[in-house]
Design brief:
alpha+beta, 6-stranded antiparallel β-sheet, single chain
Length: 202
């Protein structure tokens, strides 16, 4: 009887250790990131992808013939406040002027974007003050990518801020994009998209 009880206790202890190990693994894989959101009830939506289904976390604005992938330096070790916008379209009717984009921080300060083409060298981001920015509209022929740089340290990953993605036109007519609100989210890299597209709001 004693051996049976001892064996049962060891089995339970092993199960507890396995569960604790799984819990630690999941906790270790969680990280807080800043992700764009938009209000529902518009022609636009945000598609989130993270975890094993995506090689890296991605947020994509989608509306009709236009997709805009968004990536930000907020929450990274970079000291540069950068938002990268990558336009993908089957139409060549779209144009984008990066200088029209603004960001409003939680304290109410509004920052204006300086646009640099993604074709620039990475070192150009550090030397943005001495590199000529992209000015005026550029035509979105299938793919168009810009680094939007802001003259401010990046906000904390837990801070909410609003980006107004102005400067998009189609055949000369402004394309209205709802305010994009960046909010902190917890991403679980192990569970991936099993939890609300891989994103769990704080």
């Amino acid at each position: 009887m004693t051996n049976g009880v001892t064996g049962h206790s060891l089995h339970r202890a092993a199960l507890v250790l396995v569960c604790l190990g799984m819990l630690c693994a999941c906790t270790a894989a969680e990280q807080t990131v800043s992700r764009p959101t938009i209000a529902s009830g518009t022609d636009w939506k945000v598609e989130h992808c993270a975890g094993r289904l995506c090689p890296r976390a991605e947020d994509v604005l989608v509306a009709n013939d236009l997709r805009v992938r968004i990536e930000t330096s907020v929450g990274t070790s970079s000291g540069i406040f950068r938002i990268t916008v990558d336009f993908l379209s089957k139409s060549d009717e779209f144009e984008f002027d990066p200088s029209a984009v603004t960001v409003t921080l939680s304290g109410g300060k509004t920052l204006h974007a300086t646009g640099l083409s993604c074709s620039r060298k990475r070192s150009d981001l550090d030397a943005k003050g001495s590199v000529a920015p992209s000015k005026g509209p550029s035509q979105a022929r299938e793919v168009l990518c810009f680094h939007l740089l802001f003259a401010s340290p990046p906000p904390a990953v837990t801070e909410e801020f609003v980006m107004r993605l102005d400067g998009i036109t189609r055949k000369g007519v402004a394309v209205r994009v709802p305010d994009i609100v960046f909010r902190p989210h917890v991403v679980n890299e192990i569970l991936g998209s099993l939890l609300d597209g891989g994103v769990v709001p704080l």
